Amino acid sequence: HPAGGETEEEKQRVDLLENQLMDLRMNFARLCYSPDFEKLKPAFLEQLPKKLQELSRFLGSRPWFAGQKLTFVDFLAYDVLDQQRMFVPECPELQGNLAQFLQRFEALDKVSAYMRSGRFMKTPIFWRTAKWCNTKE
Question: Where is the signal peptide (predicted)?
Answer without folding.
Answer: none
